[in-house]
Backbone:
């Protein structure tokens, strides 16, 4: 993935996030109301508590002067009111948190689903130019950052703003001049928060990008650990990985330092205001302008006034990280999608395939396929051979519309494949590749991958045709044997036989066999070749092969060079021509 997902458009990303949350606007409205009420009932508490302190103080003075005592009945009522206020505040706060948690998890679930769906809609060229580890980082780390911070930020920002406004109103109701003094502290707090927030945004963005690089490096190390060891590159790999981790750790330290430093700075500023108010308030009490309870309430509000500002400053630090992650996600979701507007149904396929003057290049600089034409009738076995880079695999990608042709057209049963959606087209194809992709699960589940409705009997019949039934029965649990994640409990040949059985069970009209025997020994190759003959029976088949001995029975062999056909014919015809194919065939046996 290209690193063009930094949070350069901070406001734009926030707008996108708000727009993305529109389906939850009613719940968010309720959460906002609950947050407001929770804060209001909490804010009223100190003033009521001040009344209790005044009542207690005046009662003590009366008792000392002999003019009365503490009115415990009135004091208990005040304390009961405080208790009720805090209980109501707790209930609203609990409900707010409960609803927000549900909204948050639903949104994150839908967001992950959008990303996964997007993967199937973006062009194959995107994956050719991106590292899988970076894409994985977006799905995991970036969405996790959003998951962790969204609920906290959404609810706490509202609570902090309401708390600041509410506390300000309560302070004005107690003593306006002292409130003005506190207001001088507010611009200082806002200025400090803004400066730190601006500096931290860059580091949070860089942190997410480097985290993606770390994940990408880990993925490459895990997938290529045998090659790394074989070439004695472990030390160099560890050194390179250490450098990436060091850079990532540096950005983490910087971002966390800037996010963490805001709270102590804000606390220091608030403490200065606290000292000033304590001194001036004490003077007002002595002069009789304020009661003891009022100054106690005001001091509490003074402390609480800067607390939400400090909290808001800390939250804004996390907002920077969240927005950086969000922009990476939204950038991915806004990638151009492939045109899949074909509406024709591809039913009752005969299997006639025609490439008509097809030209294609992965970029504008070089054509991989140049004016390629071939007509394949139903049930024919067509072998495609040529040197590496001649365009063999590209033809397959074009046939299955992983890429669309630049010029010309590809037809199935005389209909241009662009008239079909990719899903409609691919349901008629079966593939057996050199890379035997199987997932962690039972053998039966793997075989049913292309035909979920297949019965157990159909699974066994397909396995027998693929010559896989015998070795499956020897496994500990037969068809219910679980293939481990590393696929180490099966040999290469066994895995290939399973992929052939999977293709047979799918029962496709058109087959693609891409160097399906190139990674096995000659004895296993013979077994796989027999299984492939069973698979190809009655189906139009395209065979890409390096081992030319496996395609001697093909109905047509085409030899490619630079994306163009330089020879075509049967094995016998091409050998008789003593051309490129004959040279390739004979050279393999000379080596052997």
Residues:
């Amino acid at each position: 993935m290209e690193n063009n997902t930094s949070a350069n458009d901070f406001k734009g990303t926030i707008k996108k996030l708000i727009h993305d949350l529109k389906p939850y606007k009613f719940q968010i409205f309720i959460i906002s109301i609950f947050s407001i009420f929770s804060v209001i009932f909490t804010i009223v508490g100190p003033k009521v508590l001040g009344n209790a302190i005044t009542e207690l103080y005046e009662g003590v003075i009366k008792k000392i002067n002999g003019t009365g005592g503490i009115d415990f009945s009135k004091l208990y009522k005040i304390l009961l009111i405080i208790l009720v206020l805090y209980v109501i505040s707790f209930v609203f706060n609990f409900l707010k948190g409960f609803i927000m948690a549900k909204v948050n998890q639903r949104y994150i679930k839908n967001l992950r689903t959008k990303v996964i769906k997007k993967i199937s809609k973006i062009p194959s060229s995107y994956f050719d130019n991106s590292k899988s580890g970076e894409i994985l980082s977006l799905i995991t780390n970036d969405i996790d950052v959003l998951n962790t911070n969204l609920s906290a930020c959404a609810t706490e920002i509202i609570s902090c703003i309401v708390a600041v406004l509410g506390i300000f109103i309560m302070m004005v109701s107690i003593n306006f001049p002292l409130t003005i003094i506190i207001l001088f502290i507010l611009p200082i707090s806002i200025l400090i928060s803004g400066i730190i927030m601006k500096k931290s945004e860059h580091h949070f963005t860089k942190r997410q990008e480097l985290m993606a690089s770390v994940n990408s490096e880990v993925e490459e190390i895990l997938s290529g650990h045998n090659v790394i060891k074989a070439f004695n590159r472990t030390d160099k790999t560890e050194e390179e990985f250490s450098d990436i981790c060091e850079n990532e750790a540096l950005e983490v330290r910087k971002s966390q330092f800037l996010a963490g430093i805001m709270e102590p700075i804000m606390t220091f500023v608030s403490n200065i205001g606290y000292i000033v108010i304590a001194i001036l308030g004490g003077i007002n009490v002595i002069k009789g302008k304020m009661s003891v309870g009022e100054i106690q309430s005001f001091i509490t509000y003074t402390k609480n006034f800067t607390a939400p500002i400090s909290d808001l400053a800390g939250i804004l630090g996390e907002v920077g990280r969240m927005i950086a992650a969000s922009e990476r996600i939204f950038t991915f979701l806004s990638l151009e999608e492939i045109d899949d507007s074909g509406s024709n149904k591809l039913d009752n396929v005969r299997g006639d395939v025609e490439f008509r003057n097809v030209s294609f290049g992965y970029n504008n600089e070089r054509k991989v396929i140049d004016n390629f034409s071939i007509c394949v009738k139903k049930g024919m076995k067509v072998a495609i051979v040529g040197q590496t880079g001649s365009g063999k695999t590209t033809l397959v990608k074009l046939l299955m519309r992983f890429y669309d042709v630049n010029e010309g057209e590809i037809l199935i049963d005389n209909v241009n494949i662009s008239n079909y959606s990719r899903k409609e087209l691919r349901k008629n194809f079966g593939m057996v590749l050199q890379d035997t992709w199987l997932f962690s699960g039972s053998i039966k589940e793997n075989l049913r991958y292309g035909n979920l409705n297949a019965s157990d009997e159909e699974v066994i019949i397909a396995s027998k045709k693929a010559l896989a039934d015998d070795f499956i029965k020897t496994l500990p649990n037969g068809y219910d044997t679980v293939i481990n994640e590393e696929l180490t409990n099966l040999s290469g040949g066994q895995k290939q036989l399973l992929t052939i059985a999977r293709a047979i069970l799918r029962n496709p009209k058109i087959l693609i066999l891409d160097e399906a025997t190139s990674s096995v020994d000659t004895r296993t190759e013979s077994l796989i070749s027999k299984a492939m003959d069973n698979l190809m029976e009655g189906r139009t088949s395209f065979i890409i092969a390096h081992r030319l001995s496996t395609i001697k029975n093909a109905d047509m062999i085409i030899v490619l060079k630079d994306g163009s056909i330089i020879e075509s014919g049967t094995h016998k015809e091409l050998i008789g021509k003593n051309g490129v194919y004959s040279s390739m065939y004979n050279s393999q046996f000379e080596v052997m």
The two ends are 43 Å apart (CA to CA). Residues 438-507 form a domain with the Rossmann fold fold (CATH 3.40.50.300). The longest strand covers residues 353-360.
